[in-house]
Amino acid sequence: MIEFPKPTVEQFFRTHVITNFAVSSDEKRLIFSSNLNGKVNLWAMDLPDTFPYLFAHHDESVSFIKTDPHNRFVLAGYDKDGDENHQIYALPPEGGLPQPLVTGDSQEKYFFEHLSDDGERLYYGTSENNPSFLNMHVRNLKDGSDELINEGEGGPTHLGAISNDESTFVYYKVFANTYVIGFVKVGEETYDLTPDPEKVHTVGQAVFTDNQTIYFPTDYESEYSYLAKFDLQTKTFSQVVTLENESVETVKYDKSNNQLYLGTEKGVEHGLYRYDLSSKQVEKLEKPVASIHQLHVAKSGNVYLLGNSGTQPLNIFQTTNGEDWKPLTNNRVLGVSQDDMVEPDVVSYSSFDGMEIEALLFRAKPENDNGHTIFWPHGGPQAAETKTFRAMFQAFLNRGYTIFAPNFRGSTGYGSSFVKLVEQDWGEGPRLDNVAGIEWLFENNITDREKLFLVGGSYGGYMALLLHGRHPEYFKAVVDIFGVSNLFTFVNSVPEHWKPIMERWVGDPERDKERFIKDSPDTYLDGMTKPMLVIQGAKDPRVVKEESDQIVAKLREKGRDVEYFVMEDEGHGFSKKENEIKVYSLMLDFLQKHQA
Amino acid sequence: MIEFPKPTVEQFFRTHVITNFAVSSDEKRLIFSSNLNGKVNLWAMDLPDTFPYLFAHHDESVSFIKTDPHNRFVLAGYDKDGDENHQIYALPPEGGLPQPLVTGDSQEKYFFEHLSDDGERLYYGTSENNPSFLNMHVRNLKDGSDELINEGEGGPTHLGAISNDESTFVYYKVFANTYVIGFVKVGEETYDLTPDPEKVHTVGQAVFTDNQTIYFPTDYESEYSYLAKFDLQTKTFSQVVTLENESVETVKYDKSNNQLYLGTEKGVEHGLYRYDLSSKQVEKLEKPVASIHQLHVAKSGNVYLLGNSGTQPLNIFQTTNGEDWKPLTNNRVLGVSQDDMVEPDVVSYSSFDGMEIEALLFRAKPENDNGHTIFWPHGGPQAAETKTFRAMFQAFLNRGYTIFAPNFRGSTGYGSSFVKLVEQDWGEGPRLDNVAGIEWLFENNITDREKLFLVGGSYGGYMALLLHGRHPEYFKAVVDIFGVSNLFTFVNSVPEHWKPIMERWVGDPERDKERFIKDSPDTYLDGMTKPMLVIQGAKDPRVVKEESDQIVAKLREKGRDVEYFVMEDEGHGFSKKENEIKVYSLMLDFLQKHQA
């Protein structure tokens, strides 16, 4: 019968993302953000029907979606071309065109924090008048009045949770990714959520189970985050649920069944648990995907989950009993079955100092294998490469590249000490972990010494530049996607509300001048002798375009082979399908060309 | 609470179309063609789930979709930028990128006609070697062998139906839209489907209920098409089901229940009936929409229907019992409820010679009303303006225009004599019906004499040009969308397989020279004094670009106010959302400008 060629790389380009979702309080409508029509827009489905329809046309990334409990409006956050200056818009309940609601100068940010149970008061944070630490306001949606309720100080401050009676507020103050403290404000009184805010630890998203009881994840005095409780009546902190070598990251309250859902992280995979507040029992739940991106518990107790796996793109699932997950979406790779794709092997190796490093190894299928390996240091750096679908990875694999992605020191999911190892050491320990990973690939005959490429984005782009500069002998060619090229310029150019955390995270440019020089990729321009492709979004607020401009200019001055592609209408990622396809194609062509 | 503006015209631009669909034989997959992602592509849903996923990426219009009964492949027809040179492609059963299957020179056409029950033999018609009358081939999909099975002659010839045992074929020969004869070929024998092929009548899509029995719609010796039967054993023709003032247009066989579904036309609305072959009972069925675009009966007896109504875009529905229609898609206007849109009133008026003309009148809602009316002569001309969703109409209405669309003589749905009245009279009777319609609008105080616009496409564009040239006093401004400007050039430039029908349809340029001159819009250039906007697809094979080029050039030579917009990558319609939006915007701006 008719013979068909095997799936081509172009098919992977056509995969859509689902970035976030919201479910109306009556669960009759699910609204999600997706690039289904080529740019990110809001789509909706009228449950139980799942055929989606365009809900809001704006062609921009969506930072949050929130439905009014009484279905009078929907709120959504949009930025402009990825500049991350998110502002708050309102939509008619049946959808339409977003109307500005809480907005201001295009350089200001307005973060949605909370909508009161009656839908009448909107709590939001803003960079206005307090760009570094942020102020908290409440906007009365009935009369439009606006009140400043908290001035951030000491660190960027966010609203965490509000009691039902709106008398009590949980705030977080961020000193670093690994140092976030929480406090409760009741009237003029303020209490610390954890016993000692001076100790370095984090506090995650809190929930009120009643006006006096707050549950939240924290790693206070622990390697892994656990579920903790703060009792406002007795002002006592207590440890509630601890999991072995596993961090509780998300807590959602299921009022109807008096239980909490806990989302966890453990190395390259996420976990899901249920904690019964009456029986105090913890139960591990099946989940439909390896990685959970968003979890929502409806008033009915139904749970909605957005997540993905190595070979499954982002989809939304629903369960009525915490067990039988029903997919609500069917986002897939055009004409490619999961069997045609590659699930990663989880491997580990010993680094320069004996530390165990876990990594994902995606092995090209024999029929595709081109003999080359792509080494991928992930971004963050305080993040992890988990079992998650990346169209880019599967496109590389389809073309025959093997991919290796180590969770070097500084990665999340391996305990609090491990994640802190990248702080004030961006370029030494993590780099040597990557080098050890490369050597491990060679030693285990996974990769030929002559056939290694290096590709990374964000911190991974920084690491790609640094590895290139210091260890060019390993690589045939290097791709840098919005990577930091110089630590001095980087710490000065991040968004204002990031600046307070830079000292702990990266260091102080004056105090740590020697280290900054040592760990800045552009210190090693002489080493960067291999062909390079640099990709940058012009609107990127995290790693600004100058980071790429300057290294490209310096290398070209030296006559090096550098291709440079700037996307004028993107930030630190992709919001437009055509840009994504263009970049994938450039990367594939670049790698192909340099295989020889 | 939050106040929202009323829906804007931009929201109507975002509506999607669903142009056709196919259901796999096990009914586990429904594949449909839609511009969901901005260009026309194939999408699929795995029933009963209805979340669609991209099934084939090709960014071109789809002329048909056919699934292999054994699910080894899917066939689809694509042209290039609307040039209507459809060719046949194959897709892997799980979707992917279309592979050429029956294709040839880009100027040739390959029409899908039939796939054998075992999925192994593909019957198709082609312009290759017989551009005017078309040849029929069968391609063996197992070994790739190809056999010519019928050479068209006398008129463009299409395969109508094939008996299950593939011994017997029904063909149609087209002499005009109103003169289509059918014949049956069994081996070397050929029989006429109707008693006298010399009498002018039509035969529509036939079905075999067994190898000896053929049902089909025909208006043989009747004003309205009815269900007829041809018995191959006795070689007898018989009239089976006749409906009053209603034409049977579609016949589908439901083998599992031994019944036929009949799709009908009656003026501005479609109908749906079921005929029980055992009891000989006819039953009128409820339908979920006013207009039926496609009907499919599965082996199980389930019925699938694609259709729309005045205020409801194209959607697909399913019924298991012929009654309770369940929507499978939820295609709607962004944030606009049906109540926000306008359903047409059905009106009628007496024309110059006393003939009754039915028309659709869409009255602008009082809160939108701008006092102006758009007169819309439909295309075809042997077609009708039915209760069907047009985003363009609802956008006009939203901006406050009232719309009037008459079914002038020559329209379908009002009997065989009526539809023939436009033949060899393109410019007199139909034009005077339109003029009478305009006067009726004035007389009934629906329209102010100073506030009438004229907009038409295809034959409607021809009529707009002609009305403009001969009755400029009626109009403030005129929009012509790929309209015929000169009958002489038109009859010479249509697709080759249309040429055999031109004589009966339009006339003979030599014999009817005087009439061609009288009925050609460009005879009346002097009259065309009002501002004009002309829209044309560069690839249009029906009304070629020269038709618009020449009238625009001639009018500009005379210093007239003519805007001209050519879409380089479109034919006789829109396949790309961005082109559609551009044209809508141009039209709305043009009308707005000329209201003053």
Looking at this protein, list some descriptive labels.
homodimer, 596 residues, alpha+beta, four-stranded antiparallel β-sheet
Please summarize what this structure is.
Two copies of one chain form a homodimer. Chain A is built from ten helices and 36 strands. With 596 residues, chain A is of the alpha+beta class.
Provide an overview of this structure.
The structure is a homodimer of 596-residue chains. The first copy, chain A, is α+β, with helices and mostly antiparallel strands. The first copy, chain A, is built from 10 helices and 36 strands. In chain A, the strands form 8 sheets. In chain A, strands 29-30-32-31-33-34-35-36 form an 8-stranded mixed beta sheet, sandwiched between helices. A 4-stranded antiparallel beta sheet of chain A has the order 1-2-3-4, with no helix packed on it. The first copy, chain A, has a 4-stranded antiparallel beta sheet with strand order 5-6-7-8, with no helix packed on it. In chain A, strand 35 (532-537), helix 9 (545-557) and strand 36 form a beta-alpha-beta unit. Chain A is globular and about 65 Å long. The mean pLDDT of chain A is 96. The interface between A and B is large, with 49 and 49 residues.
Q: Terminal Cα separation of chain A, in Å?
A: 37 Å
Principal-axes geometry of chain A comes out as globular
As a whole number of angstroms, the C-alpha radius of gyration of chain A is: 24 Å
Sheet of most strands of chain A: 8 strands, mixed
Counting DSSP H or I runs of 4 or more residues, the number of helices of chain A is 10
Mean pLDDT of chain A: 96
Helix content estimate of chain A? 10-25%
**Class of secondary structure makeup of chain A:** alpha+beta
Major sheet: arrangement of strands of chain A: 29-30-32-31-33-34-35-36
Biggest interface, chains and residues, is: A-B, 49 and 49 residues
